[in-house]
Amino acid sequence: MNPLWLQEIVRDALNEDIGQGDLTTEALIPKEARGQAVFLAKGTGVVAGLESVVEVYQQLDPNIRLDVERDNGDRVEPGTVIARAEGSIRSLLIGERVALNFLQRFSGIATVTRQVVDQLEGLSCRVLDTRKTTPGLRLLEKAAVCAGGGVNHRFGLGHGVMIKDNHIAAAGSLAQAVKQVRSQLGHMVQVEVEADTLEQVDEILALDVDAILLDNMEPTQLREAVRRIDGRVWTEASGGITPDTAREIAATGVNGISLGWLTHSPVALDISLDLMMEEESNHE
């Protein structure tokens, strides 16, 4: 991950939250007050986004000592200490919400991704994310998918061709759309085409494509599509896949299933920052 990009994202988040200053902390906490804090898991899940927490405190106060005790991708249970921080109480509290927002959200993404990955154990099918991400946070959210054992699909519009129904309508036909793309971009660019029916699958197989997105197909249709494709191109199932149907869809033989809800609506993992004043920590 580009460290300059991470710095910018964290800086924007801190500016948004702090504004002209933390009125509560600055009124209550003396500048010289020091203490320790722990990032504590309150739920069961998978950790992700630790680099964001490190960056938050690096920007706020380089004198904060942050000891990370878990890695991105580690499973945690309630009571697990994820990281320990020591230094200015003011700095610890000012950065608390931003650090937790990053850590909780990305850990939530990693957690739900791992749940699906675990469901597909024994199957040769990848769990893929989509571009349905929070604006400005795509790389971090996709990193969280990887921490959960998933695989990234396109990072953006410039990472491969995806021809869908609107593109076909604009080009005049599927064949014309593929021809135009190949003539302009060449053989080094991967081309994927969306198919809603088995008839479209047959049409696509006659063209120069690398992958087929099988959209909103029932398991019986998917199995037949996989049979017709017979390994000639990479296959992806998408649309309407839920945690309850993921394994059934994956078992049809597709190479991957793409799930927008991994990133657009995860439940944040419950994590807290528990503060201890210097006197308390000395008595532990």
Automatic annotation (TrEMBL):
GO terms for biological process: NAD+ biosynthetic process; quinolinate catabolic process. Residues 22-107 form the Quinolinate phosphoribosyl transferase N-terminal domain. This is Probable nicotinate-nucleotide pyrophosphorylase [carboxylating]. One of its GO terms (cellular component) is cytoplasm. SUPFAM superfamilies: Nicotinate/Quinolinate PRTase C-terminal domain-like (SSF51690), Nicotinate/Quinolinate PRTase N-terminal domain-like (SSF54675). Keywords: Glycosyltransferase, Pyridine nucleotide biosynthesis, Transferase. Involved in the catabolism of quinolinic acid (QA). Residues 109-274 form the Quinolinate phosphoribosyl transferase C-terminal domain. Its EC number is 2.4.2.19. The keyword Protein biosynthesis does not apply. Pfam families: QRPTase_C, QRPTase_N. Belongs to the NadC/ModD family. InterPro entries: Aldolase_TIM, NadC, NadC/ModD, Nicotinate_pribotase-like_C, Quinolinate_PRibosylTase_N_sf, Quinolinate_PRibosylTrfase_C, Quinolinate_PRibosylTrfase_N. The keyword Transferase applies. It comes from the Bacteria. It comes from Marininema halotolerans. Hexamer formed by 3 homodimers. Pathway: Cofactor biosynthesis; NAD(+) biosynthesis; nicotinate D-ribonucleotide from quinolinate: step 1/1. Transmembrane segments: none annotated. It catalyses: nicotinate beta-D-ribonucleotide + CO2 + diphosphate = quinolinate + 5-phospho-alpha-D-ribose 1-diphosphate + 2 H(+). GO terms for molecular function: nicotinate-nucleotide diphosphorylase (carboxylating) activity.
